[in-house]
Amino acid sequence: MPEKDANEEDPIDLDDLLPKIGEFGIYQKLLLWLVCLPACLPCGFCAFNQLFMTDVPDYWCLVPELQKLNLTHEERKLLSIPRKADDNTTFEKCARYSVNWTEITFPDGLVKINSSWPVEPCLDGYEYDKSEVTSSVVIDFDLVCDFDVYPTLGLVALNVGGPIGVYTFGILNDRIGRKKSFFACLTTLLIGSLMTAYAHEYWFWVLARAVVGLTIPAVYQIPFIISLELAGPNYRSFVTVMTCIFYTLGLVLLSGVTYLLRDWRSLALATSVPFFLYYLYWFVLPESPRWLLMRKRFEEANTILKSIARVNGKELPVEYTNKIQRQVLEQAMNGVRESENASSNQYMSFFLSSAVEIPSYLVCWVLMDRVGRRWPLCLSMVISGIFCIVTVLLPNDAETETLILYLISKCFISASFLIIYPYAGELYPTELRGVGIGTSAYIGGLGLIIIPFVNYLGSSNLVLPLVVMGAVSVVGGLTALRLPETLHCSLPQTAEEGEEFGKDWTYADCFKCGGQRSMTETESYENLDQLELTQPPSVEDKLSDMPNIRRSSMRKLVRQASIVETQRDLDGNMKMTYWF
């Protein structure tokens, strides 16, 4: 790389400004708790409600002649449905006796069943046991027997839309801004959800699920990016943890909604219509100042930064704002810029699988602050994969043991989900962060297209889905060791900085954890008020023998480059009051 000119200013990082106007002050807290965290709910609601829309009740062939008689559905089944040849206690689901019921007499109301009667497929439709599942897509569209794979195709449609959506909205995220792309994503989600609720044909329902899939998980990523870019370096871990917790709480809430609403159309409306209120966020959700600075929209960025400083009771340094403008203009002139079912009770199972994520987030929060990102990501994926594979060794009747292993595996894989988002956000530069995270999610989403078919194959071979997903998790965890560690590193701003980051990686780095170091008194944020403001280069600076060395005030701000290091006092204890 070319040597730095003596007259060139030090690179600008918004992380240096946030501690002076409030890293996580009243402005960021109000934005996080009232806007960004509630904005995480639609993703889980509209993605997982489909699991309950496609419930499959017990079913058998419909015999219209028997419907006219005063018989219960169990009596109709005993009369018209043959039993399976290999299991005399189980009825066939897709065949019935081929007899003329109008010619059969019923002496004393009884009929002697002749197992040698010929059989035929369900020519007149199906009869469903609605004692548990009163309404579902399967019942309305008769998605059973020869069409039993169709509910899986609906899930595939949802997952096909996901990779397309995250990439499309990722591009919009970086081109038109975080705010506009969020509301475009929300509008797409609500349109798809309304189409779902009012679908009266199967293929229209599939199209509706593909439209919803366009926003999964993009509608969750965009508020996360806004929160990440507005929070100071020491609070990004907390923002990540709270975002994931709110997402999980949304799933817990969804389990209650699905328990109370058994009609699938009412469920589709109940899990989408309330989010029309989110359009009110247009008046309070700010654009990311980092994105505005990269787009050279300085006036808008300064307005937002002044608002943050005012609400937080701080004052925006004019000299610092001028320096930001000069540096970004200089980058543009120099061409620096170039172009993310284990139990019989499905409601309790869904509740447990959602609730178990919260402790994993809290433990992962502590580990990320001390160990870094790479090793926790590797271990969580490897351990999750191992427990998933171990489940195969259990007997078929070990439901409790299977549930326990599944919850442990879900706990660890949820931890990896928490880590991967801030990790990806820290690896990509600001000007490409939206499309970078979107592209990563697109590549990961390709697997979602295959997973429903793997699960469907599990209906005949239960071992296959567990082995495949467990092995993929283990391999993915091991390959994560190749990524550079980002703990104690500043967010790269330009594409060039992103390319230089991690260039000196060696295999020995695989065995190193994040750069932990002790904190000195001069690095404490307690002394930030005493730090002098960065001034334009003086005559002494220009005549300095070592122009690349930062001034003492900048050296005191080195700790601000830490991404997730927790606020501590002079004894090294965590100061939890700073989080709230």
Automatic annotation (TrEMBL):
> Its topology with respect to the membrane?
Multi-pass membrane protein
- Coiled-coil spans in chain: none
This protein's record includes keyword Transferase: no
TM spans (from-to):
30-52, 149-169, 206-226, 238-261, 267-285, 374-394, 403-423, 435-455, 462-483
Pfam families (alphabetical):
MFS_1 (PF07690), Sugar_tr (PF00083)
Q: Where is the Major facilitator superfamily (MFS) profile domain?
A: 110-488
Q: Which UniProt keywords apply?
A: Membrane, Transmembrane, Transmembrane helix
Q: What InterPro entries does the record tag this protein with?
A: MFS, MFS_dom, MFS_sugar_transport-like, MFS_trans_sf
Query: Is the keyword Transmembrane assigned to this protein?
Result: yes
- Where can this protein be found? Membrane
Among PANTHER family, the record links this protein to: SOLUTE CARRIER FAMILY 22 MEMBER
The protein, known as: Major facilitator superfamily (MFS) profile domain-containing protein
Tell me the organism.
Answer: Iphiclides podalirius
